[in-house]
Amino acid sequence: MESSDINLQLAIRDRPVVPTGTHHLELDKYLFPTNEIMRLSKAVGEWIEDRAPGGIIHGDQRLGKTHAVSFLCEMLPVKFGDDLPIFFVPSRHKKNANEEAFYEMLLVGVKHALPSAGKKNQKFERLARFLLEKGENSKRKMIVLFIDEAQFLIESHYNWLIDLYNWLQQYQVRLTVILVGQPELKHQKDLYVIEKKRQVVGRFMVNDFEFKGARSISDIKTCLKGYDTIEYPEDSGWSYTRYYFPESYASGNRLENCAEELYEAFISVCKENNIGGKLEIPMQYLTITVKYALLKYGAEGKSKDKKTWPNKEIWINCVKRSRFADSEVSLFGSN
After folding, report:
1. By C-alpha distance, which of 272, 261, 263, 257 is closest to 215?
2. Where are the domains of the chain?
3. Residues of 262-283 as b/e, b for ≥16 C-beta within 10 angstroms?
């Protein structure tokens, strides 16, 4: 046996045993920074440093805004301290605004033990005092509240947020509300500006961040590097790339070096489907593409192609499998 074969066998000898279907890649239980997330992190960090009352994060669906905010919720305490209260509340689509239901939604979002008891005044009091306690126990005397799918909020909701903001302000605790939503959220802001609804725009919408998908080889490279570095099981030394392609990894291959081929694969699929315009890859389809490549062609794959390190042809197949083109055509049409 040649020494190179022996070295490869040694390199994969200690590969972890992970039960089928439980790897975090398969369960989509992983977070990693992208260029866009780091850009967003810088902006939101400045809003917090400035003790701004709020801001909006908007962009098309599928770009990864919720993923980005989940990452921020883990990363911001590293920068600002573990005692900074950060809450992430999914909004609900309601045809009619209901004050009691709104406070209950917030109570559920901040994980209050009694979100449903009482009427609207009691829910407001319970929510306000819960946040006051959290804010007073933080060095910065502030609370960061992300509200997802905020395009569903209407003026009444903002007025109730203003009531909450003012109640906390009397105790010198700052509430920073960061609204996350689709482009309709930006349109809503523009309409409020035209209508001179300064009480809403001035508090919650002055800061404005448009979230983008992957638009360059550099963006893709940063994303792929996450698979080369994040480990599962944690602290095992086995990154996602190493686990699924142990021999190729031992030979020095890394997914981040596939960035140009993967970018060209998306370009090829766009041309094949007459999708024009500047390439912007939603994070949803980028991660599905990479996941499929690892599962189908990696060590756990069941096809004859398993253990085949991805090349441009394979990446094209994986992009097609992600249904990226179908989504783009259905949303934006083709040329």
Report:
1. 263
2. 3-13+215-329, 35-210
3. bbebbebbbeebebeeeebbbb
Helix (H, G, I), strand (E, B) or coil at 234: coil
* Superfamily of chain region 35-210: P-loop containing nucleotide triphosphate hydrolases (3.40.50.300)
- Structure confidence at residue 62 (pLDDT): 85
Residue 226 · residue 280 · CB < 8 Å: no
**Strand order from edge to edge, sheet including 142-148:** 86-90, 142-148, 174-181, 54-58, 207-210
Q: Which two tokens stand for residue 32?
A: 């990693």
Residues 5, 11: Cα–Cα separation, whole Å: 10
Question: Mean pLDDT throughout 274-279?
Answer: 90
What residues contact residue 77 under an 8 Å CB cut-off, 6+ apart?
84, 86
**To the nearest whole number, what is the mean pLDDT of the chain?**
92
Q: Which of 16, 5, 7 is nearest to 242 (CA)?
A: 16
Higher pLDDT, 101 or 91: 101
Question: What is the C-alpha to C-alpha distance for residues 286 and 262, in angstroms, rounded to an integer?
Answer: 9
Residue type for position 82 = D
At which residue do the structure tokens 């686990």 appear? 243
Mean pLDDT of 176-194: 97
Phi and psi for 253 in degrees, rounded to 5?
-75, 140
Dist CA 332 CA 328 (whole Å):
6
User: Treating both helix axes as pointing N-terminal to C-terminal, what angle do 283-297 and 324-332 enclose, rounded to 10 degrees?
Assistant: 160
Cβ contacts of residue 105 below 8 Å, gap of 6+? 89, 91, 92
